[in-house]
């Protein structure tokens, strides 16, 4: 598998989230994802970017387009925030420690092909998602 | 306060008092070369601003030392804030604005050098404190300049928000709210309030929220929509969400958002037809009812 392109985008404010969505949409369109798949991965990016900002206290997203065996986009969100103490619980639909619907993480997992999450309390959170063509 | 600092202040204060008029003249000359934008500001205005700056600088140094955050520097901070504000509005760049303060270094340093010619140690200390002081005043100017600009931009954004969320009366009792663009929290708040107010004002029974122009519906957007629908319902109005494109519908399902309680339509015209039916239906039912009775 080869990385065709890679860029890192800060996630430290609301306008950053808008920019994240725009870049993900452009990249997804570039590798030829269908409109539905573009929308899925953009929405997933929006969820994770917002979590990074609100719960992670800000961080960054690495945006990569991949080639081989298929084309795809891979997004890596990382922050140095408080971490997630119970990942299974956080993934559960309806669970929120804020004032959201608690659907962001679970929903994201359903919107993408691959979903990986690493989190250490007190150190931060890293979530990697991939959507293949 | 330590002795050294007191001496230093005394030195600077004395220079500012004794050399006031030559400092002012040198400074104005300096500015006419570099920062003075005769296209933007009048000579007399610049002169009175500069004179006031000198006066307040001396006052600040005399009474409060070099910490410009202190109470003694309040009048100076006000002057600089005023200058930044007017410069920002007059079209000066931040650099040009800060250079007003920073360009005073040259005449001041010259005066300090003349006074402490024979005392290299004192000269160095004096120059160092003068430079630190003017730098912090210059930075303060930039900060206020940026704040002013931010406030202007924010105001424009807010105005745009209101402009870009027009509530349209489609029919007696039927409102439509076409939303275009990104729905972030601030904007959604405005949208929701505008719609609810219009419902009351027009005494409408059905409100159509059209999201054709919303590129992404994520959990936050969905939550805002649901809240709006609930609030409208509490006020006696039904909401219909229209413009739900296929890709958005699929995404909403995957996210697990429950819109079952909300009426949704693919297009605004579908929604309008339904709204007419709803307002019309209740009339129809009454007449049916009457008809049955008479039969
Ligand atoms: N980057 C993160 N750092 C720390 N905690 C996180 C992070 N991301 C998610 N969480 C925790 O996981 C919970 C669930 O997240 P999820 O995105 O599913 O729901 P939500 O953000 O609360 O609401 P919604 O996404 O529906 O608006 C959050 O409430 C938060 O406690
Ligand atoms: Mg979330």
Question: Outline of this structure?
Answer:
The complex is a heterodimer of chains A (133) and B (295). Chain A is an alpha+beta fold and 133 residues long.
Describe what this molecule looks like in 3D.
The complex is a heterodimer of chains A (133) and B (295). With 133 residues, chain A is α+β, with helices and mostly antiparallel strands. Chain A has a single domain, classed as Histidine kinase-like ATPase, C-terminal domain (Heat Shock Protein 90, 2-Layer Sandwich), CATH 3.30.565. Helix content of chain A is 38%, strand content 32%. Chain A is built from four helices and five strands; from the N terminus they run E-H-H-E-E-H-H-E-E. In chain A, strands 1-2-3-5-4 form a five-stranded antiparallel β-sheet, with helices on one face. In chain A, a hairpin with a 4-residue loop joins strand 2 and strand 3. In chain A, helix 1 runs antiparallel to helix 2 and helix 2 packs antiparallel against helix 4. The longest helix of chain A is centred in the middle third of the chain and has 20 residues. The radius of gyration of chain A is 14 Å and the shape is globular. The two termini of chain A are 14 Å apart. In chain A, 41% of the residues are buried. With 295 residues, chain B is α/β, with parallel strands linked by helices. Chain B has two domains: 158 residues, Globin-like; 111 residues, Transcription Regulator spoIIAA (2-Layer Sandwich), CATH 3.30.750.24. A five-stranded mixed β-sheet of chain B has the order 1-2-3-4-5, with helices on both faces. Chain B starts with a helix and ends with a helix.
């Amino acid at each position: 598998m080869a990385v065709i392109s890679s860029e890192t985008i800060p996630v430290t404010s609301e306008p950053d989230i808008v920019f994240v969505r725009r870049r993900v949409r452009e990249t997804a369109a570039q590798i030829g994802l269908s409109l539905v798949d573009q929308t899925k991965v953009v929405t997933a990016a929006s969820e994770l970017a917002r979590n990074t900002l609100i719960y992670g206290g800000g961080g960054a997203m690495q945006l990569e387009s991949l080639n081989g065996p298929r084309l795809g986009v891979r997004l890596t969100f990382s922050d140095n925030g408080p971490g997630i103490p119970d990942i299974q619980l956080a993934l559960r639909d309806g669970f929120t420690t804020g004032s959201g619907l608690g659907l962001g993480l679970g929903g994201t997992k359903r919107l993408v092909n691959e979903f990986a999450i690493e989190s250490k309390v007190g150190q931060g959170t890293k979530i990697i998602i991939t959507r293949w063509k | 306060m330590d002795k050294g600092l007191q001496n230093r202040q005394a030195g600077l204060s004395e220079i500012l008092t004794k050399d006031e008029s030559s400092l002012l003249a040198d400074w104005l000359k300096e500015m006419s070369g570099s920062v003075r934008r005769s296209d933007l500001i009048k000579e007399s205005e610049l002169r009175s601003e500069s004179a006031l700056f000198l006066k307040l600088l001396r006052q600040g140094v005399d009474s409060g030392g070099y910490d410009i955050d202190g109470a003694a520097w309040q009048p100076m901070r006000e002057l600089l804030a005023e200058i930044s504000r007017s410069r920002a509005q007059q079209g000066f760049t931040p650099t040009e604005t800060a250079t007003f303060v920073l360009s005073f270094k040259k005449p001041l340093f010259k005066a300090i050098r003349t006074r402490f010619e024979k005392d290299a140690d004192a000269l160095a200390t004096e120059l160092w404190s003068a430079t630190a002081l003017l730098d912090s005043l210059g930075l303060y100017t930039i900060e206020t300049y940026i704040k002013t600009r931010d406030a202007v931009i924010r105001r424009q954004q807010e105005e745009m928000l209101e402009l870009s969320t027009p509530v349209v009366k489609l029919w007696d009792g039927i409102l439509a709210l076409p939303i275009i663009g990104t729905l972030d929290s601030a904007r959604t708040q405005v949208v929701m309030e505008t719609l609810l107010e219009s419902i009351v004002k027009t005494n409408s029974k059905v409100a159509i929220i059209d999201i054709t122009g919303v590129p992404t519906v994520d959990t936050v957007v969905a939550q805002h929509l649901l809240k709006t629908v609930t609030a409208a319902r509490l006020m006696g109005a039904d909401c219909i969400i229209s413009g739900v494109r296929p890709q958005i519908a699929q995404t909403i399902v995957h996210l697990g958002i429950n819109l079952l309680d909300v009426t949704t339509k693919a297009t605004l015209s579908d929604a309008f037809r339904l709204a007419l039916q709803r307002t019309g239906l209740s009339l129809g039912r009454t007449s049916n009812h009457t008809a049955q009775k008479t039969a």
